[in-house]
Write a structure and sequence with these properties.
Length: 315
């Protein structure tokens, strides 16, 4: 095969096409540093506006919102926000006094324990139990009373996802304002699938059917008729009460209404452990009683739960 057959005259590449196939080297000007390629952005790197938790050598947490040009000042020196912007999560930054700080985005549990408070927050250990034992998941319609400081609302909104909805009732306007601010701060904005209503839960229309209900209020037994009308059959009701007298009144109220499965009540005690070498022991402090949790499920309309058999006492 001759050269003309391999490269016909009408297919001869133009000079522009030839140059396009040749990789161009960066131009180096004498006396100036050679240009460098822009580094690949690190996945999950800190960005302007991110909330960052700085942990000092003693384990103390400090939270900052990244703003270009600003500095975070402590008695151990200052840390420039610009050093954090673009750095990967899990970096260690040093103050002007050469003290190292671990930089991470705060977890929801960290955020809850440091958020501004109106009402007392539901602790992470209880919020996790509510989401878990309440079987709250993506796409569900959840009804909550009251909103308090918004701590539980954050957990519920994360659990239902963008396709679920959360309707929260709060009687006090000042608490509702705090809850709205905390939820907006955690998610970056107030989620569109969250309806925060000022008023009592007993105003909730029965036509707005829900899959789950969470009650954190002084007298949850008072709204049981409203809850029973709105909760679909098989739906889960979770109650959060602080005292034994509340627990007794709430459980007996559920039984008397006759439309619920047998209530299940419990509490969770969280005891951290010290583990360093062979020195392994419980910590001296623990998160003990915060509240009782009670779950029950809605029976179908007209259904009567079988009588629970109890062991007879020996005389």
């Amino acid at each position: 095969m001759d050269v003309q057959q391999q490269h016909p005259a009408d297919e001869t590449p133009t000079p522009g096409e030839v140059l396009a196939e040749v990789p161009l080297e960066p131009v180096v000007v004498a006396g100036e540093p050679a240009p460098t390629e822009a580094p690949e952005p690190v996945e999950g790197a800190f960005r302007v506006g991110d909330r960052v938790q700085l942990t000092d050598p003693k384990g103390r947490h400090h939270t900052v919102v990244l703003t270009p040009g600003k500095e975070f000042h402590t008695h151990r020196g200052a840390i420039s926000h610009d050093e954090l912007i673009g750095a990967p999560e899990g970096s260690v930054v040093h103050s002007t006094a050469n003290t190292g700080y671990l930089a991470l985005r705060p977890l929801l549990a960290d955020f809850v324990l440091s958020m501004p408070r109106g009402a007392q927050v539901i602790y992470p250990k209880d919020a996790a139990q509510i989401v878990g034992f309440g079987d709250i998941g993506p796409g569900m319609r959840v009804l909550e009373a009251g909103a308090g400081s918004g701590a539980l609302s954050c957990s519920l909104l994360r659990a239902v996802g963008e396709h679920g909805t959360l309707t929260s009732y709060e009687r006090r306007e000042d608490f509702a304002d705090v809850a709205r601010g905390n939820v907006g701060a955690f998610f970056g904005e107030v989620p569109a699938n969250w309806s925060l209503r000022l008023g009592d839960l007993d105003q909730h229309p029965a036509a707005e059917v829900v899959d789950r209900v969470v009650l954190d209020m002084l007298e949850p037994w008072a709204v049981l008729p409203t809850v029973a009308a709105a909760l679909r059959p098989g739906g889960v009701l979770v109650g959060y009460v602080a005292t034994t007298t509340q627990l007794s009144a709430y459980v007996e109220g559920l039984r008397a209404q006759g439309v619920w499965t047998e209530p299940y009540a419990w509490e969770t005690l969280l005891r951290p452990w010290h583990a360093e070498g062979l020195a392994v022991r419980p910590e001296h402090r623990m998160v003990a009683h915060t509240a009782f949790l009670v779950t029950a499920r809605r029976l179908a309309e007209g259904a009567v739960a079988p009588m629970r058999q109890r062991r007879k006492k020996l005389v």
